[in-house]
Amino acid sequence: MDKKKLRKQLAVIALLIVMFAGLDLAIYQLFIKRVISHHSPGMQKMSVEVANYVPFTGSENIYPADGVQRLEGDIPTIDGAAALLPVYAGFVESIYPEDSVIYNGESYDHESAMHYTNTRGAYKDIVDGNADIIICAQPSDEQLAYAAENGVELEMVQIGSDAFVFIVNANNPVDDITVDQIRGIYSGQITNWSELGGNSMPIAAMHRNEGSGSQTALEKLMGDMPIVPDYTTLVGSPIGFSFRYYVTGMLAEGGVKILKINGIEPTAETIADGSYPVSGGIYAVYRKGETNENVYKAVDFMLSPEGQKIVEDSGYIPVN
Amino acid sequence: MKDKTFAIILAAVMIIGIGTTAALIIHGYNLWKEISIVEMIANWGY
Description:
The complex is a heterodimer. By secondary structure, chain A is of the alpha/beta class. Chain A is 38% helix and 16% strand. In chain A, the strands form 2 sheets. In chain A, strands 1, 2, 3, 5, 6, 7, 9 and 10 form an 8-stranded mixed beta sheet that branches. In chain A, helix 10 (293-303) packs across helix 11 (305-313). The termini of chain A are far apart. Residues 40-46 of chain A have low confidence and may be disordered. Chain B is 87% helix and 0% strand. In chain B, 20% of the residues are buried. Chain A binds chain B through residues 5-6, 9-10, 12-13, 16-17, 19-20, 23-24, 27-28, 31-39, 43-45, 47, 167-172, 199, 201, 204, 206, 208, 214, 237-242, 246-247, 251, 253-256, and chain B through 1, 6, 9-10, 13-14, 16-18, 20-21, 24-25, 27-28, 31-32, 34-46.
């Protein structure tokens, strides 16, 4: 009798141990393994290696213009998106006084004329008056509403463009997708890769934070179609989105593949001639009615041949 | 095995199991907040 009871007790304990081990293994395989960053702590924290794009440090990732007149007097504070850090770091190194940039090794000082708070922070800061020029993609409806609530009208000057790209794992056999299929995926109407010529596997449609530059680009691409949350993320094969140069140039992540859209590959030529269907503008944004004349001088420089060469050398498509 | 011993072992297994699971989830959530979408897709496999 006692032996029978002991066997039962041991079986219960063993079952519990196996259950917990199975659960933890599943959590690791389905979730943790997929979110371990192989990049440095700097990139893990900020998505890009900020220290590689600090002006006046001799960085090889910045392409300043030579012999351009520097701003004097009231130096405008500049900020912007992560993906556009090389562009505005190039502008700053070209026309800002060297002592206006204060970087403490991890982040920019509050007093520095260059900040880096990414798209969401930059749109907030331009409205709140903590930045005078920001270099970003288009604002979201929420960011425009925040500006309107605070009585700020934003002036947007296009200084370049880049492709809005959709990415999949490098092993995914699908190479090509249409704009309608993208809308189908993110509206929940297309849910399996087999519908796009791939293997029979659920599509994990990944999103970014509200207000990020690429999430806003997706919202604009979707138009009136609602973006449906995807609850199959953990079991499917993913599709995500970003900007071309961020994927190919700044992260240089070989484990992903950029999809052609409507059969067109996003290259400098197809973005410039408009044949790639989902290009996005890069804008210099400032407050309408700005009284600091250096803001206008800086924007004029961005549109000048020297400024446009910085846009091009940094990996983006110039407008002029 | 006495019922009391069994209860203690059971409680210990539950505490260690739940603790480990919770720690894994918290660790994963912290990693998820910091990773870029591009790298996550690269890790995902197909």
